Amino acid sequence: MLSDRRQRVLQALIEEYIANAQPVGSRTLVDRYRLGVSPATVRNELSVLEDEGYLTSPHTSAGRIPTDAGYRAFVDDLLEDEYGDETQGSAFDELREAASKMDDLMEKTSAALTRLTDCLSVVLAPSLLGTAVKQVSLVSFTPRRALMVVVTDDGQVLDRHIEFAEEVSSDELASVQNALNAVLSGRPMSEVRGMAAQRTSDALASPLGRVVVDELVECLNAGESDRAYRLGISSLLKKPEFSNAAAALPVLQVLEDDTVLMHLFDDVADSGNALEVRIGSENGASQLSGVSVVAAQYGPSDSSGIVAVIGPTRMDYSKVINAVRAARSALGDL
After folding, report:
1. Which CATH architecture has domain 82-126+227-332?
2. Under CATH, which architecture does the 129-225 domain have?
3. Fewest CB atoms less than 10 Å from the CB: which of 119, 255, 269, 317?
4. DSSP one-letter code for 188
5. How far is the C-alpha of 198 from the C-alpha of 208, rounded, in Å?
């Protein structure tokens, strides 16, 4: 455990580095922060913090910057009292009132998180396996084309375009729609595939019914794999840490892969913690060693989603943590 004085020096250095993205020297800390000690004492404390692994010197003659361990001490020990200050809550409350459906709210929440934190935001929709079917609609465009819309009980909306080999009348389509809703409405999504495959009515057992059921299963599969709403790639690229394409490319390749994102957030749901902060090397993947992830689970445990912000390890942790907590609150009551 760091002494109070060492904590104050570490906090001042990290706050200065977060603000300016430049190595910090003892003179800057003495001039800009009321540490109550002499410049020589500050230099000594910085040297000790470096020896203990909280700071590092990028160049021999330059100032110091925080290490992952330094940020971890900052987040765990120095921000604890600030976690409850959800100053951005009203912005997300307004979004919640304006959103017409769950998908709309998740997209708007991701945009608001990016705007508030100037980082990449990700909102991962709840798994479909924990939801139930509310309604299936089949909308005819032409005799050979239709749109399938599946609405879940938590407000998620899935859609899929269907092409028919032969012309289909509106009455035929309506008959299949009614049969699907009779079988599936109110049923847990985890049971849908099996129940749809049973084709318990003449309408579902018909050639048209078999096509629609197969398309329904594909619609659910696509919806389960495409659950991420992400915005703010450009905000991430504007950070000094990623101005070099060689540094940015590996990060972008990882973050644009939904499978990797799912894996990145797996431990958040399993941890049982209200909020998780992963710093640099704690993320596991070497490509993410230069970013931090602040993530929270929202919704009921059997059908939970994830709301997260991803930014450089130099992110403003207090602002980001409060924004994620406020977004989780807005999403969690749906």
Report:
1. 2-Layer Sandwich (3.30)
2. 2-Layer Sandwich (3.30)
3. 269
4. B
5. 15
Taking the CA atoms of residue 4, residue 6, residue 11 and residue 12 in that order, the dihedral angle to the nearest 10 degrees is 110
List the CATH code of the domain at 4-78: 1.10.10.10
Q: Are 180 and 163 in contact (CB under 8 A)?
A: no
Beta strands in the chain (DSSP E): 55-56, 65-66, 120-124, 133-142, 145-152, 157-163, 228-231, 276-279, 291-298, 305-312
